[in-house]
Amino acid sequence: RSCSFTGFSTVQSRKLAKSLSRSSVRSRMSLKPPKAYNSLQKGALIWDPKPLQVKKIFEALKKGLNEYLEAHQAELDYLSGRHKDTKRNSRLAFYYDLDKQIRSVERYIRKLEFHISKVEELYEAYCIQCRLRDGATNMKQAFSLSPSTKASRESLVELYKNVQECTEDMCFIEGALEVHLGEFHVKMKGLVGFARLCPGDQYEVFVRLGRQKWRLKGKIETDDSQTWDEEEKIFIPNLHEKFEIKVTELRGLATILVGVVACDSISFFTTKPQAILVDITELGTIKLRLEVLW
After folding, report:
1. What is the dihedral of CA 154, 160, 161, 164, to 10 degrees?
2. What DSSP character marks residue 146?
3. Which residue, 42, 197, 233, 290, could crosslink 276 as a Cys pair with Cβ 3.0–4.6 Å?
4. pLDDT above 50: residue 38
5. Burial of 201 (0-12, 13-18, 19+ CB in 10 A)
C-alpha cells in the first residue's frame, strides 16, 4: 500500500528523529557490562538483534524463575508453620535453627524477586528499542521513496543514525540479559545403542554452546557399563546459540563420525533436572543420554 508524506513537514520529521535519538537506552539505564562479555562493550562489533528468539528465552526464563519463587515460598510457609509449633513447645535450640533457615529462605526469595524484576526491566527496555527501530526503519524507507531534497537527505541521515543507535542498544540489552540466564549443569549419562554398542568400543562426545566446548572420551566395558573421563560440565546459557553435539567412534588412529545434532536450550529453564535422550544417528540406533540442571 502506497503512503503519501506530503502532509508531514520536515520540521516534524526532525523532531521525531531527535526524540528517537534521546530515547537511547544507555542514556536512561546504567548497564555496566562485565568484562567476561566482550560483545557488550561499546565499540564492539554489533550483531543483528533477534527479537523473536529473545522473546522465547525471556518467557522461558521468567517461567523458570517463577517456579523457583513458588517452590521457595512453599518452603517458607512450611518452615513458618513449624516455627510456630516449636515456639509453643519451647525447644530453644531447634527453634533458633529453624529461625536461621527461615531468614535464609526469605533472603533468597528477595534475591529471586529482584532477579525477576531486573529481567522484566531489561526486556521492557528491549521492546521499546525494538519498536523505535521499527518506526525509524519504516520512516527511512518512506523518505527514501520521496523526492530527494536537502531536507529529506538530512532526515534520512538522522533516521539512519537512529536505526543504528536502536540496533546497538538492542544488542547491548541482549548481552545484559545473558548475564541473568544462570548456569546449565550438564551431566554425562552415557550412550544408548543396544546392539550397536560392544565391549571395547571407544567414543568421543563433543558438546558446544557458542564458544564453550566440552570434549570427553568414553569406553564400553566388558560388563556393558561405560566409563567416561569427565562426567559434568557447566555451560553459560546463550540467547542465540543452540547446543551442538557431535559423536565419533574411535578405532585406533581412525575416527568414524556417528552423528551431529543440535539441541535447543529453551526447555532447560526449569527447577527440575531435565533428562535428555538425543538421537545421534538418523534412525536413532545410537542415542546420547544427558541430564541438565539449571
Report:
1. 180
2. S
3. 290
4. no
5. middle
Q: In a 3-state reduction of DSSP, which class is residue 59?
A: helix
Listing from the earlier edge strand, what are the strands of the sheet with 202-209? 226-228, 212-220, 202-209, 243-251, 254-263
**Matching residue, cell 509453643:** 88
Q: How many CA atoms lie within 13 A of 18 on its CB side?
A: 6
**Are the C-beta atoms of 66 and 116 separated by less than 8 Å?**
yes
pLDDT score of 61 more than 50: yes
The rounded distance, in Å, linking the Cα atoms of 219 and 221 is 6
pTM, to two decimals:
0.77
pLDDT of residue 90: 58
C-alpha dihedral over 123, 127, 129, 130, to 10 degrees?
130
Q: How many CA atoms lie within 13 A of 115 on its CB side?
A: 20
Residue with cell 538522522: 158
Q: What does the alpha-carbon distance between residue 44 and residue 29 come to, in Å, rounded to a whole number?
A: 19
CA atoms of 96 and 146, how far apart (whole Å): 76
- In the chain the domains, ranked by start, together with CATH numbers, are 51-179 (no CATH), 184-293 (2.60.40.150)
Q: What is the pLDDT of residues 242-289, one digit of tens each?
A: 999 999 999 988 999 999 999 999 999 999 999 999 999 988 899 999
